[in-house]
Task: inverse folding
């Protein structure tokens, strides 16, 4: 060892010790460190020494994976390259679910495929204490099948934010003070699936999947879960020193707020809050302010 790299190495050791002494998860070395396959082993292929995976949808099956632990608060992100070409009728999802049925909490990203050249739609939904029906949809401003992009869910005591790259596309505030339900007691599993949903996904089910284009392939890498694993130290979730609870993450920054406005003005194609046929009176969270 030369003196030159002794200093960075020392720094690395201090960093490693301070990370391992907290209960917070870091970036895993491989997919199987944090996740397990839940649906169709034959349709998930690992690459890059287990750091990246390929999901396959064909006539026989779709597939899915889930985190080994549940998490209570934190930030989950992964890089995804969606099904290329004619992806109409396919849906890839990345979501968190407390798996508690009628009182479940759930945070959903769903990527709805489209005919070649037509924009992918990202649908988000939020269930709190068993109640969902909070769909929003945005058309992406880039081709998500051309390259990897980062999709993240930030969940702390103050808000839930869905990000596409660094851009917030959805914010759900903790407005418990106004009696609006907020997920905060139930830890959630992180899931992802790729499946066929041509009865509803593309143009409301008008565009059917073209099986002659199968197999449909989606790619995932850079899995990163930072949160309080459950089971784990009971005090973790309420620790105000967790980085995701820090002041910088308690509300959108000015830059994020600008980007969020830009998405809502230019790329939002559906918002349950303004769907008068479903909700003649807007749901309370829509008027509580964001
Ligand atoms: C697919 O493309 C059509 C036509 O551009 C668009 O109206 C629709 O929002 C896109 N997404 C889905 C999921 O249908």
Result:
């Amino acid at each position: 060892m030369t003196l030159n790299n002794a200093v960075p190495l020392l720094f690395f050791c201090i960093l490693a010790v301070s990370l391992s002494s907290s209960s917070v998860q870091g970036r895993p070395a491989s997919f199987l460190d944090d996740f397990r396959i839940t649906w169709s082993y034959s349709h998930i292929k690992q690459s890059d020494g287990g750091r990246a995976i390929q999901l396959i949808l064909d006539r026989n099956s779709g597939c899915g994976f889930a985190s080994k632990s549940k998490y209570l608060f934190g930030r989950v992100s992964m890089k995804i390259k969606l099904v290329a070409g004619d992806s109409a009728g396919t849906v890839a999802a990345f979501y968190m679910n407390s798996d508690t049925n009628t009182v479940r909490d759930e945070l959903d990203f769903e990527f709805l495929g489209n005919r070649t050249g037509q924009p992918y739609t990202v649908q988000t939904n939020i269930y709190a204490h068993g109640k969902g029906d909070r769909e929003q949809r945005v058309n992406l401003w880039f081709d998500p099948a051309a390259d990897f992009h980062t999709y993240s869910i930030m969940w702390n005591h103050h808000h839930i934010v869905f990000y596409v790259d660094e851009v917030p596309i959805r914010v759900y505030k903790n407005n418990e003070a106004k009696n609006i339900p907020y997920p905060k007691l139930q830890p959630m599993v992180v899931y992802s699936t790729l499946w066929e949903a041509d009865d509803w996904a593309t143009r409301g089910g008008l565009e059917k999947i073209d099986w002659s284009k199968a197999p449909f392939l989606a790619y995932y890498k850079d899995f990163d879960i930072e949160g309080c694993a459950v089971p784990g130290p009971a005090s973790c979730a309420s620790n105000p020193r967790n980085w995701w609870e820090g002041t910088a993450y308690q509300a959108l920054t000015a830059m994020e707020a600008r980007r969020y406005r830009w998405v809502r003005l230019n790329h939002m194609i559906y918002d349950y809050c303004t769907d008068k046929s479903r909700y003649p009176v807007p749901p309370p969270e829509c008027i509580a302010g964001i």
